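ok so heres the complex, two chains, lmk if somethin looks off
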Amino acid sequence: MKVTELGEAGLIDLLAKTIGAPADKNLIISIGDDTAAWHGDNGIQLATVDSLVQNVHFTLGNARWEDLGWKALAVNLSDIAAMGGTPRYALVALALLRDTEVEQAVSLYRGMQDLAQQHNVNIIGGDTDCAPFMMISVTVLGKATGKHLLTRSSAQPGDKIAVTGSLGGAAGGLRLLADYINITPEHAAILKESFWRPQPRVAEGQLLVRCGVKTAMDISDGLASDLGHICRSSGVSARVEVARVPVNPAVQANFGDKAREMALAGGEDYELLFTAGDEIMDKVRKALPCPVTVIGEITAGSPGEVNLLDETNRPVVLPRSGWHHFEGK
Amino acid sequence: MKVTELGEAGLIDLLAKTIGAPADKNLIISIGDDTAAWHGDNGIQLATVDSLVQNVHFTLGNARWEDLGWKALAVNLSDIAAMGGTPRYALVALALLRDTEVEQAVSLYRGMQDLAQQHNVNIIGGDTDCAPFMMISVTVLGKATGKHLLTRSSAQPGDKIAVTGSLGGAAGGLRLLADYINITPEHAAILKESFWRPQPRVAEGQLLVRCGVKTAMDISDGLASDLGHICRSSGVSARVEVARVPVNPAVQANFGDKAREMALAGGEDYELLFTAGDEIMDKVRKALPCPVTVIGEITAGSPGEVNLLDETNRPVVLPRSGWHHFEGK
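and the predicted structre for the whole thing:
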């Protein structure tokens, strides 16, 4: 069987089984959540790795090198944010084409360092190779901020489901890079920024921990798909009122009927998706500096099921939900 | 200027400058040694990342998938060994071709897990993408075993220079994969094993620390080239008596005049190269379970200079010393 037939989730499960149960008793979370976590000498430590691959996550035709560096680090900081952690160190494995200009490599690092400094992250090591295609893998190490972590496996029936910020912006930016679209320069700038320079919700993740939230992940594959991950890990199902999902205003203004689908399935927005009871959700709304929108509820239905409902309570069917690396979009 | 014109070492220097001096006061070693190192809550922590790239480090035509997994982890464990550390956790970023068989991906992980278990390392996370080329980046986290680390920057004039094991085996294995060579099956097996399944010298690195050695690195680029790294970092030069360099017996038996060059410049042997005074060197010879060979001496000549001398004290000139990713071999 080809890996494309098995699919990404199936492959990860199989590879985790190949490794077997971890022997280290200090490990709290191994493969399967946003980051790994273990008891360090004086607190919980976190580690995550994520890659950007040429012609999969970006093309050299439309990427600005500084943006590439920013985004390669941002997607990893977002994983630390999704655990409620504090990022500390980054290691960078870089595969460059032979005809890469030195100035391009420097720009890439400059973009990465811009974001690193905003979050007091130190880039402490790396590996640089020439290769037939370009790839950036970043590993970020961090530590837990509070006494517990935000995981995918702790959602309970009755929990409200909420997201930070708004969704669909990155999908709008990607569309803009691929097609000609009649759009104001202001909207174009907002959408490209959403795609290239996502701001990882690190402070927000830490505040979620402080408010008592237990369940969260970052939206990288798309809301519907990522909520499915939470539901499968927690053995619950979810009901989402699609009309309540916050759509990026620049997407709403320019993509008409497609806007809702882009917010539900677009992916790469790196907002936080989390669940909690009403009391905690009230605290969160007061504590977080960004918009927080309740979009639905965790239910006790069949594990892993995500029901998207329109204003008349009828199911909304997405053409395809989420990004599947092993199947194409 | 292209990155190929600047060269790998120049590029790494420039990228380190782009990042600037690290702000974190806990950092001991940032970019430029085998691993990064920092003061953790209760000891020194280590982290390193290294990649294998298709058509650069391996071709799919001749790789066994289990070997690929083994080697991808081995080169990273070797970096931890070169600091005298204990490896603990590994994270794996994997870019696979779309038509990869699931069984191949599982074999790759099986090979990685074989080596991980030998060293009590837990594979705790990763990232898997489909890509136009195959690449495996592994990050390994570890901790210092003793009170100090083995670095590249502490060699002193008068230190003896030594290596563990023998050299040239990996170069022999690589030659065997590329060309038809008339060789016994036993020798062929030894050389292929040297190339595909290097055994990182983790226990040996820890013993070097205990014996009081301060300066070491692992031989990945080739003896002459890697000794140059130590000399540049330490501001010293080196004199190597080429006749004393231990050549892999299977290389000696099959590659005639080329054997010496393969041992000096072949690379990828992942033996430890270290320097120390006579007294410590005596301790090392007794403590290490593998052969230890003194091959020369650190001198106070011009920083970074490596002088290779034959039996009559005449300079030995290598056609090309070491592996240069940005220039081809």
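quick notes: Chain B has three domains: 1-32, 43-144, 160-309. thats all i got rn
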